[in-house]
Amino acid sequence: MLTDILRAPPSSTLVWRGVALSVLSVVAALVFRIARSRIRQASLWKIPGPPSVSLITGNFSQMFNSSASKYHAHITRTYGRVIRLTGLLGESHLVISDTKALTNILLQGQGAVFDTPEWVLESNTRIIGPGLLSQGGVHHRRQRKMLQPFFSTKHMRSLVPLCHRVIHQLDVVLQQKLADGPKEVELLDWLGRLALELIAQAGMGYTFNSLSPSGEEHEFDTALKEYMPTISSIIFLRRLAPQAASWPPWLLRLGGTLLPSPMLHRMMSIADTIERHSVQIFQEKSALLAGGDDEFTHQLSEGKDIISVLMRANMTASGEDRLPDSEITGQMATFLIGGTDTTSSAIARTLLLLAHHPEAQERLRKEINDAYVSSGDSELDYDELAGMAYLDAVCRETLRVYPPVNFAARVCRADTSVPLSEPVQTSGGAISSLFIPQGTNLLMNIGGVNRDPRIWGTDAEEWRPERFLAPLPESVAEARIPGVLSNLMTFSGGPRSCIGFQFAQLEMKVALSHLVRAFRFSPSTKEIVWRYGVVTTPSVEGTDAVGTEMPIIVERI
Ligand code: HEM
Question: What domain of life does the native source organism fall in (predicted)?
Fold first, then answer.
């Protein structure tokens, strides 16, 4: 972990030479690996794709920048469902939106043939610790099996009252802010705090007090807000992470500090904040646990949150079943990272769309009000929330057209062939199955499938919730989309799909049912642009690429 780095940094010429040699060895190992994979990947050269624009970075600078969404749409439209991209030093990458190929990639061998790439796992380990987002192979399967029950429908049902309580806090804050009439509110900030509190309270029985009426921002909240834009901007450095896997922590920190990259330095400081707070929460909970069952069950979540249950089970677990403390703190950081910006981005996008579609907003408000009348004005339970057809359609349509995460990355661990739904024209003729050499990096094109006009029809790019109120076109069922949320790739599919997908939908529904009932939303005069990153986030046109915000006019009803 980053805070262990830089312990006892020796300072001598020898160390400087050591650092220089280590950096050289990283670069040499990378060049060697890429040269070897280029030879292995010769068969991929015939796959259609955009011409490379740089000998060093190929198409990466077009593919991974904050305004890259247009480029993604362009290559999907121009080159189709299987695209070859040029990566660093000519390495081939595949961008896939063919659903038959995706089914094989995501499900084949339960993740044994295609797993998350080493550079993602290794850099996540360094930044957020050994949680689910950092583990591969059997370690991942073991952690996933242990955590899965907490994300079941049964557990989600029990979380509904807690979600209402947290969202009520936001209600109070906004009511106070708008006491003098409609106002422009920077809503993304408040939705980020809401998502943080929801995952902190439901996932670890902890509060950062981010929704206090004083409006003070917790430093953790600030760190989380900067996390996604910052990590998205250091993709090239993250790719070097496996080469530095064996470096002692102090050398890694020294190397990071010496590199002239302000974004890397920002990332290191964010990672320190996340780790510091995860350890602090863990220590506070350990003290409660040591104080006995009574104290432990007096937490916000009555001891039923994921981390409390894990810690309690861990106390009695023996030998290899026992999780090291670092894996528990790593899991906390993982949920906070995985569950905050994704959810706040989805809720923000929905509210902005409703602001631009007042008739859809009114229709949704009416459905929510009717549901409250039927429930005798008491908080809506899980089934009542699930029973609102238009709310469900609004959430699904937003997650379809605007998935907060656009790509899921995989690497091929062994030479393999995957079948295609339809033949792909290559420079060597049509192919009906795709040979993927070992070591090839792939990007699952989530948006490409969700907005494929041959699956969804000619209006695939349009936001039209009504499409989910009528039977979907047959082409949707025929496509057999392998997403964990039916017919959508938004939460990916297979053994590495989003573990929080049911919680995310619950959060969206509870939040919208409160906010749309109590407030009316209309667009601000400021133009909102959505910036591509690991998670797509809103900003005001013309502002700093790392800053995220979404001003919107809010009026009390
Ligand atoms: C709208 C909200 C969300 C979206 C769009 C989203 C999307 C995704 C996607 C695309 C993946 C990658 C899957 C892959 O590589 O195949 C993922 C993984 C993950 N998500 Fe979410 N997510 C959301 C909310 C959440 C929430 C609320 C949590 C809370 C716990 C969460 C926790 C995770 C974790 C832990 C992983 C890693 C799973 C693994 O590797 O086994 N996500 N998510």
Answer: Eukaryota
Our answer on whether the CB atom of 132 is closer than 6 Å to any ligand 1 atom is yes
Output the CA 173–ligand 1 centroid distance in Å.
28
Residues written for the chain: 557
**What pLDDT digit, counting tens, does each position of 481-535 carry?**
999 999 999 999 999 999 999 999 999 999 999 999 999 999 999 999 999 988 9
**Average pLDDT for residues 207-236, to the nearest whole number?**
82
**3-state SS, residue 423:** strand
Assess whether the C-beta atom of 240 lies below 6 angstroms from ligand 1: no
pLDDT band at 545 (very low <50, low <70, confident <90, very high): low
CB atoms within 10 A of CB 77: 11
Q: Is the dihedral of CA 538, 543, 548, 554 positive or negative?
A: negative
Residue identifier of the C-alpha nearest atom 37 of ligand 1 = 133
Distances (CA, A) of 230 to 61, 210, 271, 535: 16, 22, 11, 11
CB 420 within 8 A of CB 434: yes
Residue 498 pLDDT: 97
What percent of the chain is helix, strand and coil (3-state, nearest 5)? 60, 10, 30
CA angle 80, 395, 193 (to 5 degrees): 110
Q: What is the mean pLDDT of the chain?
A: 89
- In short, whether 139's Cβ falls inside 6 Å of ligand 1 is no
Residue with tokens 């929460």: 281
At residue 257, φ and ψ (nearest 5 deg) are: -65, -35
**Is the alpha carbon torsion for 141, 143, 145, 151 positive or negative?**
negative
Tens-digit pLDDT profile for residues 334-360: 999 999 999 999 999 999 999 999 999
Q: What is the spatial distance between Cα 30 and Cα 88, in angstroms, rounded to a whole number? A: 10
| Residue 307 phi, psi (nearest 5) | -70, -40
Please indicate whether residue 402, judged by its CB atom, sits closer than 6 Å to ligand 1.
Answer: no
Q: How far is CA 85 from CA 106, 317, 368, 474, in A?
A: 20, 47, 46, 32
Cα of 239 from ligand 1 centre, angstroms: 21
Classify burial at 42, counting beta carbons within 10 Å of its beta carbon; exposed 0-12, middle 13-18, buried 19 or more: exposed
* pLDDT value of residue 27: 75
Burial profile 50-62: b = 16 or more Cβ within 10 angstroms, e = fewer = bebeeeebbbbeb
Tokens, residue 46: 């015939």
Closest to 268 (Cα-Cα) out of 6, 548, 544, 539: 6
**DSSP 8-state code for residue 488:** B
- How confident is the model over 423-432, as pLDDT tens digits? 999 999 999 9
Tell me the CB-side half-sphere exposure of residue 214, using CA atoms within 13 A.
5
CA nearest 117: which of 145, 88, 146? 88
Whole-prediction pTM: 0.91
Burial of 357 (C-beta count, 10 Å sphere; 0-12/13-18/19+): middle
Angle (CA) 183-185-190 rounded to 5° is 145
3-state secondary structure of 304: coil
- The answer, yes or no, to whether ipTM is higher than 0.90 is yes
